[in-house]
Design a protein that fits this description.
Length: 399
């Protein structure tokens, strides 16, 4: 389980100043979130509004999309979700009550020449499928949050002259959002200076992350062993699962942190064996239902550096050691982590440098006052109104 600096606008060739100004207007407001949304709602016709959300592949795309979908539903919107069959989004979205619209499309990166040569035909077919969905639903807005499914869906939206809103979660833009950003009605980013002519709003997230007490209130008066939360994410992190039990075994039992370790569903049994072999007690779980509360409870979080993890850690205000996934596209997890690390809001350890002995020494040298300082610095970088701002823009565009 997770952004800030000022952003700048970069003019694009062929786009008029008036068009650029048109994009920038709208979501910025001097009114509180509820006031903005209430005003929008009162001025809208009584008809039901429809949004088509497009996001897939990983939890980093899907969970921000779910936060937006739930906020729109609370405002009376009908929300549909464009995704691919057999995917993570198909497992996560329908149980939350959103209609799932499947199309056949997947990525080509690293899948060989044959897959690359078949791309034009596959993309054309996916665009036709997405176009049929858009024609049937006639959505008031289409929202893309990344993953390959966003590209054919975004093309279909623009061909149908539907407003297209994009949100990029990472500090390095994904291919689909990068290509579509020139066609979009609005572009939003979780980190600053990611895409030209985009508005930096942070990541959509559940309210629980923004409502946790400040670090100085949560951590005041704590004594005893440190509380360590290890987060592998929705797919788990094998390197953390292997090294953390060994590191804890290096620490004398009376000095060990109290550990909660989230592994991912596929790795929970292997993790249990690793802790048993190390002779270390810990609370092991494949999934954490309330990540916000878990971040707030921990003195220290050891985790990957996906966009959602980094921005959620900033929202809560938690001290973290980030171990970026080394095979992430364009090494975007390192860039994500640096957003907090460079202001003193956490530590960055590359996976190649992570050893059991080194981690044990790091944990033994940590003091609560240092962790509090890191948590406070992380919280200064939080940007928590993405859901409000994007929903408000949807309501304006749907008038």
């Amino acid at each position: 389980m997770t952004s800030r600096f000022g952003h700048s606008h970069h003019p694009r060739r062929g786009r008029s100043a008036r068009a650029r100004a048109g994009r920038r207007e709208g979501v910025q407001s001097n009114f509180p979130a509820t006031q903005v949304l209430e005003r929008s709602a009162h001025s809208l016709p009584a008809r039901e509004r429809t949004a088509l959300v497009m996001a897939g592949g990983t939890g980093g795309h899907i969970f921000p999309g779910l936060a937006l979908a739930e906020a729109l539903r609370e405002r009376g919107w009908q929300v549909h979700w464009l995704g691919t069959p057999g995917s993570m989004e198909e497992r996560l979205v329908p149980p939350r009550g959103f209609a799932f619209e499947p199309i056949d499309f997947s990525g080509v990166r690293g899948k060989g020449l044959k897959t690359l040569l078949a791309l034009p035909l596959r993309l054309a077919r996916a665009c036709l499928q997405a176009r049929a969905v858009v024609r049937r639903l006639q959505p008031d807005v289409v929202i893309g949050l990344g993953g390959y499914v966003t590209f054919p869906g975004g093309i279909a939206a623009r061909l149908a002259r539907k407003p297209l809103l994009l949100h990029e979660q990472n500090s390095v833009p994904g291919m689909a959002n990068k290509l579509l950003s020139r066609l979009a009605t609005r572009v939003y980013t979780a980190f600053p200076n990611v895409l030209p002519d985009a508005q930096w709003v942070g990541n959509p997230m559940r309210r629980a992350f923004t409502r946790q007490p400040r670090p100085e209130r949560r951590l005041a008066g704590r004594e005893g062993p440190l509380r360590l939360l290890v987060v592998g994410g929705s797919l788990g992190a094998k390197a953390l699962n292997d090294i953390v039990p060994q590191a804890l075994a290096w620490i004398h039992e009376q000095d060990r942190p109290i550990v909660t370790h989230q592994s991912g569903e596929s790795q929970i049994e292997a993790l249990r064996r690793s802790y048993a072999a190390a002779g270390v007690e810990a609370t092991l779980t494949p999934f954490i239902e309330d990540t916000a509360a878990a971040f707030a409870e921990a003195d220290l979080v050891l985790c990957r550096a996906g966009a959602s993890t980094v921005t959620e850690i900033a929202a809560v205000g938690a001290a973290a050691v980030f171990v970026p996934f080394p095979h992430a596209v364009d090494d975007h997890q390192t860039t994500n982590a640096q957003y907090l690390v460079k202001v003193g809001g956490g530590w960055l350890v590359q996976q190649a440098d992570l050893t059991a002995h080194g981690l044990a020494e790091m944990l033994q040298n940590m003091k609560r006052q240092d962790l509090l300082a890191k948590a406070q610095k992380a919280r200064t970088m939080r940007k928590i109104n993405a859901t409000r701002d994007i929903v408000a823009a949807c309501e304006r565009l749907a008038r």
